[in-house]
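User: Could you check the structure of this?
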Amino acid sequence: MLMNDNPALSGAAGGRMAVPTVAIIVAALLAPLLLYWSTAASIVSVWNSSETFAHGYAIAPISLWLIWRRREVFQHIPVAPWWPAIGLLALCGAGWLVARAGEVGVVMQYAFVAMFPAMALAVMGRRLAGALTFPLLFLLFAVPFGEVFVQPLINFTADFTVAAVRATGIPVLRNGTMFELPTGNWSVVEACSGVRYLISSITLGCLYAYLSYRSAWRRALFIGLSIVVPIVANGLRAYMIVMIGHTSDMALATGVDHLIYGWLFFGLVMFIMFWIGSYWREDEAPVAPVTAAGSAAVAAASRPVLGAAIVAVLVCALWPALAYVSDKAAHNPAPVELDGKRLASNPQGMPTWSPSYQAADATLRGSYSAGGAPVELNVLYYRNQGPDKRLISSVNRVDSRKEGFQQVASSGRVEDIGGQPLALRETRVRGPHGNYLVWHWNWVDGSFTANDYVGKLRQAKAKLLMHGDDGAALMVATPVGENPETARAALRSFLGANLAPLEATLEAARGR
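Assistant: Sure, the predicted structure tokens are below.
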């Protein structure tokens, strides 16, 4: 029996996919990359700047390799454009536009990457794209997502470590994510959160489950383990590092070496997990033989692909055009001025505490007196926001570590200010000269909010309605001792006298 060397290109009875059809499919799949080049560049920028997401460079090559492994499907499944997928492309584009108006980078990136499987579904059809579902969806792992889990992971790691150390019989004094042992002090920071281990484990776990198992329940079980195991393993890693430091009188595992121990431990855990998982490996199902009729259909059914590709590309191109129009209409070239003369209190100096935010268009800062305590005010106003100037961003923090401030704890609150409820965030910050209690919230499209998601939606709505994207961050802080109610009383007193003037100041700046 004679066999073809490349079954993907030359099937029996003339089942070769026409070269023009291949060219059209490739061009259609490359179209989103060209139309949304700035979004693609933002993804690569994160890969370059963060070791957590450096694996992103490998995602597209792995996806292409997975498609190559399944290349026989191009021989026996005809190209049959599926027109309802044009609606999915439009939905991705609309999501990208709204996310762009709200400056939500990760949603923009997901909407952009999701266009590739949607484009494949529209141009190649349900059967052909369905046979490549995992390789196409695997592209979503290229999006640098996961920073939102850092703080919860930090809290879990701190809880786990402190509980384990106490169970060992060692006394621990805890203050937020920082804790003290008789031999030294420890702090769970971002590098100790385990988010890198978690993202790497989920990515590898999904790939391993796809390659090793056929049944859905085995794949789901292994993927579940790839989520739970690294979280627990990171807690064990942190506990072992603390114990190494404690037993060595802080001579070991207190510097770069504890990161090395962490990766070695993570690698060992992953090896054991994959090794155990290999015992339940399932062989890949054989591919059905190609009939002469099926091969002929591969060549004959490819003619409508050009029309579907043209429509799909035009739908993709619509949203960048709308974004351009929206940017031009919503842009406000007027400078921003914040006048503090409306405030009922007179400043007595400049704040000793300051947040770490991206540079604002205008600021209003001062140290005041209220309720017998000093109250420090920081207002940061943003206009014509972009990637390097955002009101709501993961890089904006109420603690400035460069100046020696560190967040200890944070929670939501609703305060009664002048008979009106005000939702805000309360954060405790440890500084070089004492601790502060900080109340902070945002002003977006003329309304206060402490919810970042609501703030982003309001910003997107205002910009798409050509109202501009003006917004401001408001923060008041006061020293806090053993009784936080004393500090809260001072902040309430200040806001009771100055919240309405602050709102009037922001409205005046917006109307310029």
